[in-house]
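Q: A reviewer asked whether we had any structural model of the full assembly, not just the individual parts. We don't, so I'm hoping you can provide one. Inputs are below.
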Amino acid sequence: MISRKIKDTLTQKLMFSFCILVISLAIMMISGLYIKAEPILEMKSIRELLFSLVWHPYRGNFGLAGFIAGTLWVTIIAMSMAVPVSILTALYLSEYAPKKLRETLNTIIDILAGISPVIYGVWGLIVIVPFVRDYFMPLFSNNLNFFPFISNNYTGFSALTAGIVLAVMVSPLIISLVNEVLKTVPLEIREASLSLGANKWETIKYVVLKKSWTGIIAAIILGLSRAFGETIAVLMVAGCALNEIPNSIFDTAYPLSALIANTYGEMMSIPLYDSAVFLAAFILLLITAIFNIIGWGILIHSERVEP
Amino acid sequence: MDKRKIEENIFKTLMILATFLIVVSLICILGTIFFKGFRSINLSMLIQTPESGYYIGKEGGILNAILGSLVLGVGATFLALTISIPVVLYLNFYLKKKSNFALGVRFLLDVLWGIPSIVYGVFGFTVMILLGLKASLLAGIITVGLLIIPVITRSLDEVLKKIPFELKEAALSLGATKLETAIIVVFRQALPGLTTAILIAFGRGIGDAAAVLFTAGFTDSIPYSIFKPIATLPLTIFFQLATPFPEVQERGYASAFVLIIIILLISMVSRVLSKRFEKNIVGK
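A: Here is a predicted structure for the entire assembly that you could use as a starting point for your response.
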């Protein structure tokens, strides 16, 4: 009898230490990357690192601005496509779709969410790159000669291409998060609205969305952070040529994540190079962590408010 | 028709269009991979290793990558499980329902889930250097293991949360300790759900390229030692599509085909299992 009790207490202690292990994993990641990035932070000013465009590791110039801009371009393009489509899809799923259809669609979204980034990359390479090259680029360069469409890049590898691929990648995440949020809106208040004579769309607009907009924003933030750090798919289709800040959706983009992945082989031999790459990783970690803390914070908070 | 009706119809059409776009994307992705894969896949592709170098060698197949990915995935899943099983048991059986500690750990895991895999790759690389390892199967397992710990812990956690409190209560009232309740009663009942969680994490693990780029290396041979580099399907796809030789690219397409088949299989099996789980546990 006593031995059972002891076993129970012992395992409890052991399990608790595993929880501590997981917590320390997060701390180790942050501090580990920071320690590795520190040499370059001591040598150069943060201003120079973040806002200089000059990336010449051999000459000791480590300006990350071009890569940060690349990340921003790609992410913004992706989100401007993914957000409306995802929210509309989620609304259709939760408010209009019949039960059978909803189940099928949920399966499809689950599969889409489970597909590996590299597969998205292959798809982008085979389908989206030629599509952008053969249709979008000629069309826009002939007709729209203003920002952000002017570009002399006609290869098909561009910020837009990466944005399209990323949009499809992050949509399943946003859809399922928004779906969860919409589920928490009680059926009763929908019925109340309907019984007052509002039609279904008005109920969505004035009741459902009003109740759930914070949660939807959280879902968007979480999708944004996913797009922000995506690497392989972007690396395969964004072009990733070292140049200035992209000025057009048709310019090539070179995001931070792609920089990290690309420079792996060469970084060990040049002083501070590895440190610069670790700094890039640290920036990604910091920003995605902040986005996730905000996103999940909102979701948990709103769950707690709703009994 | 009045204005209100028109507005509703416009938005409903937009919703259907958006949903249609998502469905078309999936069909287009699957179609592309199947179309390219079917032409390059054959038996010798599956049972041979590449000859004369993965970047330029035109002969041989992708056996190295298939085996490498499977070994890596299984290893990483086991590593992640040894850490996450105690954590979920603790969260679900030893803490009160409104425990702040549990809330904090779950929150942290959600945040860790959102950290990009390239960051895990870089972190795994530093751990690897720290341990004095070279790019190897072991380093890959550690990195991918870290990457999927949040995935696997949170999905196991969600499964255990769904188990009715009465079931735990009944076992406890019969004199079982918390540990016995957890292992004998709940784990058995929740097995289909738990398997689903594990499969999903496995799928995420073998599909990720950014995490293994620095840590697992690349090789033409099949895995034979945990201290030697291994080939993986995602990196095979990534490297071999970057070559200018169509014959080499074929191997990339074949790898993509194999990878997507594995992912579809996982998705199918987990669907069946979670249906069974819902029927067993949640339904009544």
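A: Points you may want to mention in the reply: Chain A has a mean pLDDT of 86. The longest strand of chain A covers residues 55-56.
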